[in-house]
Every structure is written in structure tokens, then in C-alpha cells.
Amino acid sequence: MDVFLTAMPALGDAFAMILQPHVIGYLVLGVVMGLCIGVFPGLGGIAGLSLLLPFMFGMEPVTGLALMVGMVAVVPTSDTFASVLMGIPGSSASQATVLDGFPMAKKGQAARALSAAFASSLFGGLFGAAFLTFFILAARPIVLLFQTPELLMITIFGLSMVGILAGRVAIKGVVAACLGLLVGTIGEGSAQGELRMIPREWIFADSGSFAFEMYQYLGDGLKLVIVGLGIFAIPEIVALLRQDKAISDKANLGGGWLEGVKDWWANLWLSMRCSLIGVIVGVIPGLGGSVVDWIAYGHTVQTAKDKSQFGKGDVRGVIGPESSNNAKEGGGLVPTLLFGIPGSGSMAIFISAVALLGSGSIEVGPSMLKNNLDFTYAIVWLLALANVVGTLICIAASGGIAKLTNIRFALLAPFLFMIIAFAAFQSRQEIWDLVALFGIGLLGILMRRFDWSRPAFLIGFVLSGPVERYTNQAYQIGSSRFRRSFEDGLEYVFSPIVIILIIITLLSVVIGLRQAKNIQAEGDVASGSKRAPLIFLLAVMGYAAVAYGNASLVPDFAKTDRVIPIFVATIALIGAALLVVQMIRAKETDAIFADRELQDADVNTYGLWATLAWFAGLLVATALVGFILALAGFLLLFIRFRAGKSWGYAAGYTAFGITFICAMAWTLNRDFPPGLLQGAFDLPWPLT
Amino acid sequence: MTNYTSQRPLALALALSTAMVGGQAMADGHAIDLEGKTVEWIIPFSETGGSAKWANFYAPLLAEALPGNPTVVVVFDPGAGSTKGANNFQEMTYEDGTTIFGSSGSTQFPYLLSDPRVRYEYSDWNVVLASGTGGVAYLPTDLAGMLGDGGDASGIAGEDFIYGSQGATRLDLVPLLAWEMLGLNVEPVFGIEGRGDGRLMFERGEANIDYQTSSSYLSGVTPLVEAGTATPWFAFGALDDDGNVVRDPTFPDMPSFKEVCEATDGCETSGPQWDAWKAFFTAGFPAQKMVFLPAGAPQAAIDTYTAAFEEVKARADFAEISAARLGVYPQMTGPAAQVALESGTAVPQEAKDFVINWLSERYGVVLQ
Predict the structure, then answer these.
(1) Do the Cβ atoms of B11 and A682 come within 8 Å?
(2) For residue B14, is pLDDT > 60?
(3) In which domain, by residue range, is A70 found?
(4) Is residue B358 part of a domain?
(5) N vs C: which end of chain B shows fewer Cβ within 10 Å?
(6) Are residues A261 and A283 both part of a single domain?
């Protein structure tokens, strides 16, 4: 009853604050700005909030909050457009949406998939807000129960989703996940700062030398935005380009938005469970939300009766992740507001922006509930309201935007590639960002070709940091507890929550592996010759071996930076060795030799390397003359020769593209990658 | 690779400024005019850190105070624990006063420890603002009850302590060395991502000793103290005009580290260990964040920025708005900033050697 007595007056105050015309006005403004940014893959809350920061100083707190919350809240809604329509994860929150959303778009059901996604997002957002209204008062002690061993187990549970997404050959999925984990360990170790996969001599190289530049770039590891876009977006763009048609060949975008809403209604119970998953994962500090969509997807598949359509366009595969990712935003407010510990990059900016508001009297952190409960509720319900506004706008727009899938892809691809390159460049603002995007993209293309699970790779990559950190920390704190007394240690390591999580994880793995054959994250792939798949396997094995050798060089005093790479590389090597044995024994037609080149041979109009050469050309030209000049040439030539349009059309397209990207960079106050030319001459923006 | 000297706003303003600079310089030989320009404030960290918060606070105020009211934008150049951004800044030369750089303790420590990644030289740059902070060490209430008079640590010398740390070569070097001088048996758990995570570890009962900078202590730990779960032990302190460690004016009721050290048997407030602690404390706290103009900046530009920051400090509401957003930090300009820079970047060779040796013996960290 106490809870109600505290909550109700503050809740009333919060609504009085929110429900003023100018506050709603700012909220809508924030939502519209958020939609404009979030609809582009790779750009999200961080870019948007940075844009708002200069205006926050001294702004009236409620209006400032309305503007910021409006913007942050709609990103997981609007990023669905890219995920469903283009097969490009709009942000880390909608990676899993791609798996079923994009096949639906290919089947001409884009509008249906979108509206199902938006309905789920809306429900998730509202569910999260309602749940939080009461939970936030009791959350503190519950959140504190999640110590390092619990965090480690949740991370491992997240990894166990690989079981579901492993594809037809389970070991391949496991090796793919190990590869993702290994790529995630590149750079300085979190505990001792030892370098992995970077020669130590590079630290001592001359300033400006290639080695030193590479050290400075790779030392902090690869960023999720680059790996996410590289592993999903580039392969899809290249594959669609090679077929030279529209994403959906159905003229009729059958199943309009109403059908999607009905789909969601029919799966209301699923949507509710996934929203709950979203809130819970979001509430726990330290994990962020980058796995919540995968966990929700895994749950969706595990609890479905008919699993045959997953990965091929099952609407439930859209409803699950989309319900969870908006609910997660609400959950993520708990660590942010209660502990002052941001659950994500955008939340970190949010915290510092709140300090700039008004007289600076709102302090995000432990005192928030006591001193500013009304503001806390205002934030929670602004989030809910922003979800409603955002969803309505998105549903209204989805029918029109879905028509993009009917455009010939050769006309869409250069534009998409431009946006993706720009987004990737925001990671470090160096040309190496583009090189990394291209490199990871190539890996993605090969994984797609040989039917290696890209979701498994990505889950591994995302969880690489947490796995390593929590393993080391839990081990260290655990040993200290065991030294104190055996019971103390046991109690710490095997708390009731840990035991429950272990049971859930084991069940998930067993069920997952049993079902994995049904869920083809990469669709059906034919098998053919032995040589190409074997070469790729050997290359993966080679990388694992190099990673093993490299990690074993880490000296003893820093062994915490060695344990995980060695362990993971060992599993990868064992898995790869098993695969080699299987390959030697199996027939050419076995699933293990999946090779998409053979399957798509008749639909591919263009060769892989010819298509890639266009992008490689853009990269090389950027290194020489800078991004904007290179892009202008790329757009012009691509539209003229690859898309076969007239020079006039190509020039118009180029002018539009360049204007667009410049306007975007100008608004966000960003620059473009410079080339050698810019090193020699000072050029005016945007050519810099 | 990043070329800051030819940024967009700069280039756009080029035509304007060439026409105007001549006349303006005549009118006022002691100030540069930045009208219509965009000042880029480079922060060598990501958008999400404490330095971003600090720069975002100052940016609009600085824009108001600079002659010509330029737009001030904060740009981020993170990487390699801020050494990358600092190396890039070192490559730049003064052009027209539209590029400034914000460094932090994490930029100074590798410099002090002769880290091979450091390719920058503080003495080349021109300091226009130095912001200080303090730090507070705190314990779980039951352990704090075992402390002796004046914070004497002898009573807890036998305890096993766990401390969540960002790394021994970072700012955490100062508390880690302090624990050791007080004879505590502390095991640092490395790999936490920020001091906030360290506090969370303390709140979960996994860590049982922690410190926070002044502003984080006020916002994050005070509620724990009120709830009775945490008790402050000592504040590191502040420097008086003669360079002595005295009580932190923000926390006048807490003993300084010097007092606690004096009260504890075996902890010396003189000798190489103390000198090393004091040198790195000075670099990390009282002179933690500084704003620089690049090498080759003319006196007029330095004066302009110094005057602008002084104007910001002189605002009637400055104490109020800065206390809420930055904590109670001393903000130094002019000669005071120069002194802060010198005490923060010039560490006696013995102190440096002591720390380098201590890091390698205690943590196996080899820097050269």
C-alpha cells in the first residue's frame, strides 16, 4: 500500500507536467526528429541527442525532457524500416527483426511486417512504462541482487541463443559464434590492457606510420555499428544488386497494414512475454540492450508450435523482437535513473543533458526517486507517449515507404551504400572505418554464401566484452570469497538466481539444438562442390589458430587478458577440426557443403567480384580524393553504367545524393573522410 | 588521418574572416574576433564520458563570452585512452583560434609515465583553463567503525578488500597507491568501465572499498551515507598556495589523506612514496581537466580565451550553475592555470621512477 501512497501523488504531478500543449508539442517535435534520424541505418539516439545538446542548457526541464525522450524513444520503432525493407539492421535493437522481417518484404508483405512490428513496438513501449511505474519504486534492491556471477550467467544465457540460430549444421553455428567472440577480443584487454591481435611493436612505431595508425584504430576494438552493418547490410546489398531486380517482385504489396495489426493481436500473449523479457533485460545494468532482441527471438522460436517458417518470413519472428526492444528502453531507465549508470551510449548523453536542463537541479542517480519522483514518472510516461505518437506516424507512413521494395534495387543500392558508409564513419571518423566496414562486409558475404550463421557471429561479437569482463571479475571476487570461507564462496557463486539461470540456459541449449535444423537463419542453401566451402573453413580455422597463438604470447601477469581468447579459440579449433573430418567423409550434396553461389547461379545477373569492385572503387577513390568527390564519381558512374540510365538521369541522381548527405552531415555537424588530396590542399567543406 | 585544420565552418568563414580580420585586429590589438566562426572543442574521449559533460557545460557559456559570439561545438576524437586525440592535436598548428582541446587526467598520466603511445608535449600547448576536482574514499559502515582516531587504518589492516578499478595506470593509480601506503590488503578487480560501475559494485556488496570524485560522491554516495550503508573515510584533499595537501574545501569535515596517513602507523608523509603519491594526485585531481590552444598560438588568442573563461567564471550565477553540473571544482585561468599545468605535468623524476617501478613490481605493468 505504501507504494501506492508514494506513487499516486507523484504520478498525478507527472501527468500535470506532461499534459500541457507546449510539452506535447516538443514531444512531437522530438519524435519527428528522432524518426528522421532513426530511419537511416546506423544512426540513432547518440547522433540525435548530440544534435539537441546545444539547446538543452537552461531549457525548461519538462520541455527539454519531452524533446529528448521523444527522440530517444522512437529510434527502436523507426529503425524497423531498414530492418524489414532492406534487410539492414537499423540499430542494434532490431538485428533479430531482419531474420523474418526481410523475407516477408521479399514476399511482398512489407506493409504487413511493418505494421505488425509497429503494433508490437507500441505495445512493448506501453507495457514497459506501465510496468516501470510500480516496479521503479521497488527496483533498487532487486537490481542489486544481480551481482557479477548473475551478470555472467545472463551473458551466457544470451550466448546460448546461438543454439537456436546455429543453422543446419550446429557445429558451424558454434564456430561462427566463436569467431564473433574472437573478433570482439581484438584490441586492448579489458582487465590488463594487453593487446590482442595487434603486435606490441606497433605501439612504438613512428607517429603517422601505418603500424601506429593501425594500433590507434584497432586498440579499442571494432565498433558494433561497423560489425553489424558489415555482417548484415553489405552482403544483402551485394546479393540484391547481383540479381538486378526489386527487393519484392510482387507488384501487389499484399496484406496491408491492417493485417499486420491483426497478426499482432493474434499473438498478444507472445508480445506480452517478449515485452517482459525486454523490461527485465533492460533493467539489469551492464548488459545494455544489444542482445535483448536475440533473446526474444529465441524465446519466440522455442515456444512456437509450427517452426517451419522461421527465417523464411514468419510474422511472429517480427513481433517477438519488436515487442522486446521498445520495452527495453523503459527497462533501461532503471539503471540510468536509479543508479546514474547509463545502459547505453544514448542514455549516457541523456544523463549529462539532464544536468544541463533548467537550473541543473535534477540530478540523475540514487537521489532521483526521493527528490524528483514526479520527474521520474514524467520521463517514464513521456516515453510511453512518444511511443504512441511515433507508432502512429510510422503506421501512417508504412504503406508509402513499403513501396521502396518495388523500386529496382540498382537505383536504391548506391543511396543505401552512401548512408551506411556515412554511418560507419561516425564510429571513429577515420577512413579506417570504411576499410573495416568493407572487410567485415566481405566476411559477411562469405558467411552468407557458405551458410554460416551470421546471427551467431554477431551474438558472439556483442557478448565478447561482457563474457570476458564478468568471467574475470566473478573469478577474482569468487576466489576472494572462497579464501574467506568455503560457504561464503559457494553462496556467492551459486546464488539461487545463478542456479535458476543455469537451468534456463541448459534447457535453452537442449531445446535449441534439437530445433536448430528447422530454423534456417540464412534460408535454404543448396550444396555443391567441395572445394570452396572447405577453403573458407580452413581460413576460419587459420584465424582461430592465429588468435590462439597471439593470445598465448600474453605474459603471465596479465593472464586475465589471455584466458578467454585462448578458451574460445580452442573451442573454435576443435569445432573446425570436427567439420574438416565431416567434410572429408560427407558427400558433395551434404548440407555441410552449402554454397549459395550454386543455388543463385541462375538468378545472379552479375558476378560477385564485379559488384564488389564498385564498392572497392569507392573506397580507393575516397582514400585518394576524399569521400564527397569519390561519392560523386561513384554515384554518377554507377547509375550511368550499372543501372544503365542516361547521363542526365545519373547527374540528377548524383546531385540529389550529394545534397542529401551534405545536409545530413551539416545538421549533425559531422565531416567526411578525407583522402590524400585533402592532405595536400585545404579544400572548402564538404570536400575536406 | 583526421584533418582538423581545414574543417567546414572554418572554410566557410574564410572569405568573411579575411575581409574582416584586418580591420578588427587594428581596432583591438589584444583580442581575436570570432564572429561568424565555429570553434571546435576537441575532446579525446567518447560522447558519453565525464569530459564530455564538462565540455558540454562550458561550450554555450564560452560561446557567449568569446568576442563575436562564435558557435562552440564539442567534437569527439576518442581512442587509445585519449592518447590518440592528444596525438592528433599535437599535429595541429594554430590557424585562427577556432580549435581548442580539452585534456583530462587520463591524458596526463600516460604522459607522466612516459608511455610509448604518447606523441604529445604539454609544454608546446597553451593552457587557458584548468578545472580541478577532489576525491572521497568511503567504506561500508561496519568496516568504517573499525577505524581508529583520525581515520587510523590500523584497525582494518587485516581485512580482505576488493576494489573495482579501471586500471592501475589510470587515475586509479592514486587511490591504489593510497591503499597500499595505509597498509591495506586490497585486491583490485580490473575491467570496470567507469567509476559509476565501481560504486555499483560497492552497492552490491562485492567491493568493500571505493572512492568517487567530488561531484559523483555528492550525487551518488551521499544517499548511501544517509541510508547508513556507506561511511566516508577521507577526502584526498586540496593543495594550498604553498603546495601542501590540506582539507578539501568541499568536504571540510573529512580528514585529508595526509591526516589519515599521519594517524596510521607505517604511513609516511615524506620520502619517495609520499612524493610520488602527491605528484600523481596533483596531476590527477587539482589539475584534472584543462583547455588548450594549439602550439604557436599568439598571445592575443591566449588572452582572448583567458578573458572569455574569466568572464564565464565572473557570471553572477556561475557558482550556482557550476555547482549543480560540475560539482564544486576550482576553475583556474591565467597564471593559476599555468601553475596548475606545471604541477600537473611536471613530476619529479624520482616520483616517476618510483611509480613505474611500483607498477611493474605490484601489477606487472611494463610501460617501456
Answers:
(1) yes
(2) no
(3) 2-154+255-408
(4) no
(5) C
(6) yes
